[in-house]
Amino acid sequence: SVLQIGAGVSLPGVVAARCGARLFLSDSSEKPSCLQNCRRSGEANGLSGVSVLGLSWGEVPPDLLLLPELDVVLGSDVFYDPEFEDVLVTIAFLLRKNPRARFWTTYQVRADWSIEVLLQRWDLDCILVPLDQFHADQPELAGSSLPGRHTIQMM
Ligand SMILES: C[S@@+](CC[C@H](N)C(=O)[O-])C[C@H]1O[C@@H](n2cnc3c(N)ncnc32)[C@H](O)[C@@H]1O
Q1: 57: CA distance to ligand 1 center in Å?
Q2: 128 contacts: CB under 8 Å, gap ≥ 6
């Protein structure tokens, strides 16, 4: 089973489901339009049985406690706001509840903040995954013509 947090258009989750995962998509419980995007993305990609739940970072809604055992939690571009400790609170909770699960995330380096201190605070370890391992370091995937830093990282 795979849960995507802050899923929005839900591409990684959709790929996981197309690969056979039982998929749970989530986005902020305060953003019905984003939850609707999750549903529409599942439908547009011909997926049935995708569950969509409101999950605001840092909160533990009852639906979260009812999820089956998770194998993977996905997060695509969920560390865009420097106030991202709530994301890690949610991840720490999910990984404690599902000790065999892993959190896979990609993010864009937009500023010079570091996640290190917060990982220690929440007793989380991380491994950086070099994009060239799966040929994803191409300019059209990991580059941008916009000003500023736009490096993509995966961990
Ligand atoms: C930068 S977008 C990334 C969307 C999508 N994962 C992607 O890669 O295209 C951030 C997503 O996080 C969601 N989000 C923002 N604040 C949130 C919160 N407090 N709790 C849960 N989701 C949140 C937004 O609604 C949005 O879908």
Answers
A1: 10
A2: 153, 154, 155
**How does strand 151-154 pair with strand 102-109?**
antiparallel
Distance CA 9, CA 17 (A): 14
How would DSSP label each residue in 4-44? EES-TT-HHHHHHHHTT--EEEEE-TT-HHHHHHHHHHHHH
CA distance 90 to 55: 9
What is the model's pTM? 0.94
Which residue ranges form the domains of the chain, and what is each CATH number? Answer: 2-154 (3.40.50.150)
Residue 1, ligand 1, Cβ within 6 A: no
Tokens, residue 97: 């509840």
Question: Could you report the per-residue pLDDT of 26-80, keeping only the tens digit for each?
Answer: 999 999 999 999 999 999 999 999 999 999 999 999 999 999 999 999 999 998 8
C-alpha distance from residue 45 to each of 84, 103, 141 (Å): 30, 24, 21
